[in-house]
Every structure is written in C-alpha cells, then in structure tokens.
Amino acid sequence: MKKIVVTLLSLVLIGVMVLSACTPAPAATTVPEVEEPEAPVAEKYKIGILAPAVTHGWVAAVAYNAEQRAKELADEVEYQLYTSTNAEEMTAQLDDLLTWGAQAIVAFPQWEGMEVPIQAAIDKGIVVVNFDISINADGVYRLSGDNKDMGVQGAHYIVDKIGTEGTVIMLEVPTSGSVSELRKAGFVETLAEIAPDMEVISYATQFTREDGLVDMADILTSHDKIDAVYSMDDETSIGALQAIREANRTDIKVITGGGGMQEYFRMMPENEDIWIQSALYSPAMVRDAFDMALSILKGETVEEVVIIPTTLVDRDNYQDFLDENSPY
C-alpha cells in the first residue's frame, strides 16, 4: 500500500512540473513612449524697410545699415528691403509691404509726395518710423540728426574762420524736402543774428559730387571773390572742391559739408589753405530707427521724435572719426 501511495505522489509531482513547464510566462508590460510636444515657434515681427536707390554713398550706407541691423535681429524679425527712385515707386513698394503683412515700416522718404500713402498706412494700424525726413503725417515716428542745428553750426564755423563780413555761396537742395529746408533755415537765421553784413548767395544743386562739380564750376565763373561755401552734404562738397582746385581759386577759405563720409574726412588735413568741415550725420543712425520700430511693436514706450545732436569734424579732430569698416 505504501508503495502505491509513493507512486501516486510521484506521478502528481511529475504532472505539476509538466504543467508548469507548459504554462507560458506572463507577457512583459510595454509602456508606450510619450512624445514630448514640440516647443511653439515664436512668431517674428514683420518690419519693412523703404530706402531711396543709391544716389551717393550716404544713401547706400543707410540701406546697408538698416539691412545689417535687421539681420542681427533675425531671431525676432522678418524683414523686406526695397529701394526706389521716386515717390511713385516707393508708394507701390509700400503697398507691397502691406500685402506682405508688415507690422512696422522704417521709411526714408527722400521725395515729396509720401505724406498721403504713409498716413494711409498709419491709419491701418501700421507703425511707421521715418528716418531723417520730417513729413506731415499724424502718428508717424521719426529719428534723425539735427538738420537745423547743422545749419546753425555751419554759420558759426564760417564766421569763426572768415569774420562777420564776406561773400558766402549757399548750395541748397530744395528737392530734398525738410533736410535742405531745415539746414538752410538754421544757417540763414543764425547769420542774420551773428553776421548781418554777410552776403549769402543761394544756388540750387543736388546731393551728388557730380552736381557739386558742375554747379560750383558755373558759380566760380560768375563770382570773382568768394570767401566761403556753405555746402550741406559731403558728396556735394567733394565735387565743389574739385571745381575750386581746377579753377586755381585761392580766395575760398572755408567749405562745409554734412554726412560723415570717410573720403571727405581724409581730405581735411590735405588742404591746409582751406578749412574743410563736415557736420557729422551718420547713416548708422538708421539702426536706431529700426530698433525704435521693434520697441514699439513690443509695446515699449518710445519718444515720438528722437534727434541726434550735431558733431563738427575738421582737420583738428577728423582722426577721431575715421572708420576703416565704414561702407561710406
């Protein structure tokens, strides 16, 4: 009997072992991978740039500096740059920027006739920051040099060099709008105060060295004695200086300028018989105009008009303003 019981127990144990071997192990639990959500792409501000086509180096440097600043802010800004040759072309480009979805526009409207299209853009909620030029539009922001003070400083400089009497040729550029108007007003009003006996003869020209050369050559044939030239732009002054040299004139003791052109700076110590002056008006200021537009879009408070003070450059301090990396 015991033998039978042992045998049965053995069989039971063998069966249990067989069943255990045949029973599959429970499947491992697979935890599904959870994909992390992608970080949202920050929306960039859209800023358009409107600049004149290149008429001389200063204008070229304005477009260059504006675009460089836009590239430096590429993480925050999308931009489009247009250059134009007249008000009609710039107006069409302004419309293109609105279609593109520009939220702000940095404009350098060098011609008359931009008041209406810029006002229309502002009325649509577009931020407009004018660089350099003052126009009659409600709600426009502006950043520029002190055009009127350039004229004031030019008058003081000439009187300091030649005294309160003499003949001064004023090379104005009526087609440049407020730029020429303000520089002329500062010059004429200041001379009336500090040198009322000074004779001022006005000639219309352009902000190019070619026009400065041609117009100054004509002026020199009409006037035997000139004491100074009030020029509003470095490019114009370079052309006028060439005409003076070619005519072998030694009566002119002063010529002013404006802009901050490196070539003009380097001419200053080379002409000891004539004082060459420039009222610094750096094209790099447009970077600040671009920053102003971005600040407004971010909701920051900025001044409606920002004026950069005038700095005079001549042979005594020109070395402080030389910049080999300047495109102008």
Q: What does this 3D model show about the protein?
A:
The chain is an alpha/beta fold and 328 residues long. The protein has helices spanning 2-22, 57-72, 87-100, 115-123, 147-162, 178-194, 209-222, 234-246, 262-267, 285-297, and strands at residues 45-52, 77-84, 104-107, 127-131, 141-145, 167-172, 199-204, 228-231, 254-255, 258-259, 275-276, 278-280, 305-308, 311-313. β6, α6 and β7 form a beta-alpha-beta unit. α2 packs parallel to α10, α5 runs parallel beside α6 and α7 (209-222) crosses α8 (234-246).
Helices and strands, in N-to-C order? HEHEHEHEEHEHEHEHEEHEEHEE
CATH superfamily of the largest domain, called what?
Answer: Response regulator
Task: State the end-to-end CA separation.
Answer: 119 Å
What share of residues is helical?
Answer: 40-55%
Number of helices: 10
CATH topology of the largest domain: Rossmann fold
- Whole-number mean pLDDT: 87
Strand content: 15-25%
User: Can you tell me the residue ranges where pLDDT is under 50 for at least 5 consecutive residues?
Assistant: 1-25
Number of strands: 14
**So what's the overall shape?**
elongated
- Main β-sheet, in a few words? 6 strands, parallel
Name of the level-1 CATH class of the largest domain? Alpha Beta
Question: What's the gyration radius in Å?
Answer: 36 Å
What is the number of domains?
A: 2
- Spatially, the strands of the biggest sheet line up as 2-1-3-4-5-13
What structural class do the secondary elements suggest?
alpha/beta
